Amino acid sequence: MLPSLTNSECKGGNEFSSCPPRMQVILFFVSLYMVAIGQGGHKPCVQAFGADQFDEQHPKEYRDRSSFFNWWYFTMCAGCLVTLWILNYIQDNLSWVLGFGIPFVAMIIALLVFLLGTMTYRFNIQGNDRSPFLRIGRVFVAALTNWRTNLSSAAIEEEHGEILPHQNYDQQFNFLNKALLAPNDSREKEAFSHSEVEEAKAVLRLVPIWAASLVYGILLAQSPTFFTKQAVTMDRSIFPGFDIPAASLQTLPLTGIVLFSPIYDRLLVPIARAITGKPSGITVLQRIGTGLFISIFAISIAALVEMKRLKTAQESGLVDDPNTTLPMSIWWLIPQYFLLGIADVFTMVGLQEFFYGQVPNDLRSMGLALYLSIFGVGSFLSGFLISLIEKVCGKQDSWFANNLNKAHLDYFYWLLSGLSVVGLALFICFSKSYIYNHKVTTRG
């Protein structure tokens, strides 16, 4: 909306090129960083805050909390779906001012609605306690300090004057139990409590599940990148005179999520609940594993479709002409996009609920940040994997040639399919030994 002031011609540019004033450029980048900072505070905390409104000690509210994650993800994806279809059209064909102005007004309304509910929210007020990071970190330090100490249940019971309440102390992450003993030269007046040690164990138990889920993060990184690049080469006509933009195919996973989420929550969960007797129908880890299993089919179908696309390019004699549209409909890509959306309903929502519920109460927002990091790290690993393959294969036999008709994305997709199978196997292995946290009692 700001006037362009004195748009001077760019040095070295043509007669149509112009440079925006320096203040506009500064304002533009400041706004981008503000969006990043805002999302850093909003994304991990909004789910934790919403889920905190449910009393996990109340059976009905505990069951409803599981549905909350379903409907939160459904609403977010529905909003993205509307944005991709409507706002992108407004920005490209009407006005960028209007395209950014509409979300601005929507955010003002959302903030007002949020503030209006202030008097009704449940807040988890923490007491004057040590930072959970400091508390958990000191458990690890104490265990390391006592690493030479011989550990026995009798010694712990003598130290604390009580019988151990759980057998898990001796079965998993036994080395952390040594923090229950106060060393003679320790500055701590007393050893750490059972609950503090269990907090540290709960956090440590998340690491294998997090690592096994990274392959899924790598796989999702292909949807907005190579999937879109495939679509550019294909026939994108919906009806005569109208070609769908390749980037608009990103709405297909969202469509799958919007369509399947109500089916899962209102149909599949009640059926599973009647069979298993569990409030959520199936366990959170079973839900995540189901999504990982479906994602294997999604990337395998992507590999088969890419093989078909390359064959079409060869049969049409268009291998050396990357700018010509192949006689292959873009509808071939629908299954891989749609299956990824269904996989998200299981895996994404499952990971949200898992990392929310399996961390100490005062680390819930950080647990959700840990869930989000799966996809950030997965994107970095995807880039690293592509660079490594490029270095090994060389430019002559590149799987990722600029001319996609000469590339071999099908090889890459089959590789990701194999990695997904390995990731699922590791996930199942870690899940079998996982001990659910029901629930770590924090000192706050």
UniProtKB/TrEMBL annotation:
<dbReference type="GO" id="GO:0022857">
    <property type="term" value="F:transmembrane transporter activity"/>
</dbReference>
<keyword id="KW-1133">Transmembrane helix</keyword>
<feature type="transmembrane region" description="Helical">
    <location>
        <begin position="202"/>
        <end position="224"/>
    </location>
</feature>
<feature type="transmembrane region" description="Helical">
    <location>
        <begin position="71"/>
        <end position="90"/>
    </location>
</feature>
<feature type="transmembrane region" description="Helical">
    <location>
        <begin position="368"/>
        <end position="389"/>
    </location>
</feature>
<comment type="similarity">
    <text>Belongs to the major facilitator superfamily. Proton-dependent oligopeptide transporter (POT/PTR) (TC 2.A.17) family.</text>
</comment>
<keyword id="KW-0812">Transmembrane</keyword>
<dbReference type="InterPro" id="IPR036259">
    <property type="entry name" value="MFS_trans_sf"/>
</dbReference>
<feature type="transmembrane region" description="Helical">
    <location>
        <begin position="411"/>
        <end position="430"/>
    </location>
</feature>
<feature type="transmembrane region" description="Helical">
    <location>
        <begin position="244"/>
        <end position="264"/>
    </location>
</feature>
<dbReference type="GO" id="GO:0016020">
    <property type="term" value="C:membrane"/>
</dbReference>
<keyword id="KW-0472">Membrane</keyword>
<protein>
    <recommendedName>
        <fullName>Protein NRT1/ PTR FAMILY 5.10-like</fullName>
    </recommendedName>
</protein>
<dbReference type="Pfam" id="PF00854">
    <property type="entry name" value="PTR2"/>
</dbReference>
<feature type="transmembrane region" description="Helical">
    <location>
        <begin position="330"/>
        <end position="356"/>
    </location>
</feature>
<feature type="transmembrane region" description="Helical">
    <location>
        <begin position="96"/>
        <end position="116"/>
    </location>
</feature>
<feature type="transmembrane region" description="Helical">
    <location>
        <begin position="284"/>
        <end position="305"/>
    </location>
</feature>
<dbReference type="InterPro" id="IPR000109">
    <property type="entry name" value="POT_fam"/>
</dbReference>
